[in-house]
Amino acid sequence: MTDHPRKITRALLSVSDKSGLIEFARALAAHGVDLVSTGGTAKAIAAAGLKVSDVSNLTGFPEMMDGRVKTLHPKVHGGLLAIRDNAEHAKAMKDHGIAPIDLLVVNLYPFEATVAKGAAYDDCIENIDIGGPAMIRAAAKNHDDVAVVVEPADYQSVLDELATNNGATTLTLRKRLAAKAYARTAAYDAAISNWFADQLKIGTPDFRTIGGHLIQSLRYGENPHQAAAFYRTPDARPGVTTARQPQGKELSYNNINDTDAAYECIAEFDAKRTAACVIVKHANPCGVAEGDDLLDAYRKALACDSTSAFGGIVALNRTLDAETARAITEIFTEVIVAPDATEEAIAIVAAKKTLRLLLAGSLPDPRAPGLTCKTVAGGLLVQSRDNAVVDDMTLKVVTKRQPTDAELRDLKFAFRVAKHVKSNTIIYAKDLATVGIGAGQMSRVDSARIAARKAQDAADTLKLAEPMTRGSVVASDAFFPFADGMLACIEAGATAVIQPGGSVRDDEVIKAADDAGIAMVLTGVRHFRH
Fold first, then answer.
1. 282 is catalytic
2. What is the pTM of this model?
3. Catalytic one among 282, 374, 412, 530?
């Protein structure tokens, strides 16, 4: 044999996740491996009728301090760290009665799960593993001689090697397991450090790390020449990471990114208050609407820009029903995402083999705190999530004309949408539906004009006498630096405007609004999205 094989004679197993444990332990015993274990793991193995030694027999010390101290001992760490071919290490092992440990199987106390279920502070602290990470790091460092397993998914690869190599593991496998081991402890420590920062309300800790667990390797990234993968973080936020997929082919990088954008936007619309639909293309909403039911909301959203909706993502805030499913499947759609779906709706979607259906279980809370992160050259930009909601804002009317009740309702709707469109953003809305969206332009005037142009295109498609921007309201994600952007909106037919305000030329902009006889509302909150 080649590849530096190391025979496993003794294994130490200490796991909180006991899935597959007994089958794995039984297979190890069949290869003549001596089993050493701790606490509940030892009890589970013994209860299965397998011979196992408690770690206290190895160390000569009982578990103490409520289990906080049990593996932090030279006879454990010496057995893991000793270099087998080093004569000095071999002598030390002999002199001090240290037996080698050739395989370490540890998965850590469930700290992330404990935090996710909202446990009390002291419970979270007790679920910070100390001995586990210490052993994992020791075994991974000494991977030339020791194999380390940190999740049940790797049990079979170890057993395959033992079967192939007469009870031994290869260096290739041990290196791969060691790399995963260090990544696991890094992600674990990241979860703990970020939790502490949250508890202490430290927005900018001196060190910030983000850890994740692989959900799936992706065929490629934004473009075919880019490698990509999808990871889950400890932030248990409903959405694409929590969703089950009863239908459709594997999600792509762009599918995941766009679906997340759609589902975060639809979360702005309380399902108890209204049915709502968001259609997204290239991470930007191209149609958003509230309706009497999902079908009504979908048709209103689609009317905004049916051209861009082709090949888009449809997000719904209520259980997908059969009638809505039939309507959505009339045009090519990449993904439908909703909290749930009826069995009839699932069957209807299933007829479209390439259409993915994601059921996220619930909607994310738009007010919940959290972090967003993006990379820059040599660094990370980390910020708190934009959890500002228009319903919580103090709206200030600054024009002579007050908005009507219908206009105010549409202004709030438009500002909800503006939060989720790339800056510079202009949203025209009417009757709780977008009728023109301008996104991602360098000039706010350009966004206003593009949105109006798309509204004219939609009117042509629907054979309307005039674009739906006539008599609409408009939302801007940031202030108008000059009156020209707002005047372009008025020219398109807007009768009321909602914007953050805060420009040195606010008075000029307000005067232009008064001169045109429109209403203007300031939120004091900006929604840049880059």
1. yes
2. 0.89
3. 282
